[in-house]
Automatic annotation (TrEMBL), chain A:
Signal peptide: none
Positions of the Thioesterase domain: 63-145
InterPro entries tied to this protein: HotDog_dom_sf, Thioestr_dom
Name of the protein this chain belongs to: Thioesterase
Gene3D superfamilies from the UniProt entry: Hotdog Thioesterase
Source species taxonomy: Bacteria, Pseudomonadati, Pseudomonadota, Alphaproteobacteria, Rhodobacterales
One Gene Ontology term of the molecular function aspect: thiolester hydrolase activity
Top-rank taxon, per record: Bacteria
Automatic annotation (TrEMBL), chain B:
Signal peptide per UniProt: none
GO molecular-function terms, A-Z: 1,4-dihydroxy-2-naphthoyl-CoA thioesterase activity
Keyword Protease (UniProt): no
Pfam families per UniProt: 4HBT
Key words of the record: Hydrolase
Domain Thioesterase: residue ranges: 52-127
Keyword match Hydrolase: yes
CC annotations in GO: cytosol
Protein name: Thioesterase
Length: 163, 142
């Protein structure tokens, strides 16, 4: 394909940010927790803004391990959907027609207490086949080199993507 | 933070954790190294609107809290506990509209570590929705 005139930046941003919003808005539990995504090109960072509703023990205080687990699982599912839909999105097709990947298993390794402040996560797809995917997630707060937790999950890809 | 081993105080403590309250968790049973907690169906907890199924993360939160409860319910009376590692296997989608109940058992405890397993069900108790295996820290009285 010959290299045509590059697309205007606002067209690219609108397409990608719009697709990302449709993907994440489609997960009610992510909205309930208040999870947002920051996008740089195709790189996503999940953000869970601090709020009382994600607090575990208020006396310590520390984030609830269950909220951290859910946050990381959302980060993994969105990363999978985003990566799978990227090419369709870039050709102008609807990238996320159909269902989201289903979690088969998810294992969380809690490394440090979650402090009462925002927490960030990035997911990395170790392998995405037609049927199964394996995803690593790491989350941190003040310091990227001092992760709060790391996780690995396996996912069943939806039929419309796998088939 | 100190916790007494008074049953009512611990069960109240578990469900008054702000995140447990946000998910409307309720203690069903507690004692003898076991705990059972439940959580209502709520459309805000849905993972995929196409199916109406509760998000795995909400089930994880219920599992984590229930497992911590089982540690606190151990006859050796840990003062407090924190999750080291939690693995959840999602065996099937929970049926939309049904309450989810998790039952956890602290089957082994050492000086510093508690080993826990848990199962979650919806209204059909013959087919588990998810199972969990976890390790927790054990904080003992000095």
């Amino acid at each position: 394909m010959s290299r045509g005139k590059p697309e205007p930046v606002e067209v690219i941003k609108e397409r990608r940010d719009g697709a990302l919003a449709r993907l994440t808005d489609g997960i009610p539990y992510a909205a309930f927790l208040g999870i947002r995504f920051d996008r740089r090109g195709d790189e996503l960072t999940a953000i869970l803004p601090y709020g009382d509703h994600v607090l575990g023990n208020p006396m310590v205080p520390a984030l609830h391990g269950g909220a951290i687990a859910a946050f990381m699982e959302v980060a993994a599912v969105v990363q999978l959907g985003w990566t799978q839909g990227w090419e369709r999105m870039e050709t102008g097709a609807e990238p996320f027609a159909g269902r989201l990947p289903k979690t088969i298993d998810f294992t969380i390794d809690y490394l440090r207490p979650g402090l009462p402040r925002d927490i960030y996560a990035r997911a990395r797809i170790a392998r995405a086949g037609r049927r199964f995917a394996s995803v690593h997630v790491e989350c941190w707060q003040d310091n990227r080199d001092r992760p709060v937790a790391q996780a690995v999950g396996h996912f069943l890809m939806p039929d419309d993507i796998a088939g | 933070m100190t916790l007494t081993h008074d049953l009512q105080r611990i069960t109240a403590f578990l469900t008054e954790l702000p995140h447990a309250r946000a998910l409307s968790m309720r203690v069903e049973s507690f004692g003898n190294a076991s705990a059972a907690l439940s959580m209502p169906y709520d459309t805000r907890f849905v993972g995929d609107p196409a199916t109406g199924v509760i998000h795995g993360g909400a089930v994880s939160a219920l599992m984590d809290t229930t497992c911590a409860g089982a540690v606190m319910a151990h006859p050796e009376h840990p003062l407090s506990t924190a999750t080291i590692d939690l693995r959840i296997d999602y065996m099937r989608s929970a049926t939309p509209g049904q309450r989810i109940t998790a039952r956890a058992e602290c089957h082994h405890i050492t000086r510093h570590v508690a080993f826990v397993r848990a199962v979650a069900y919806d209204a059909d108790e013959t087919r588990p929705v998810a199972t969990a295996t976890a390790t927790f820290t054990v904080e003992r009285a000095p």
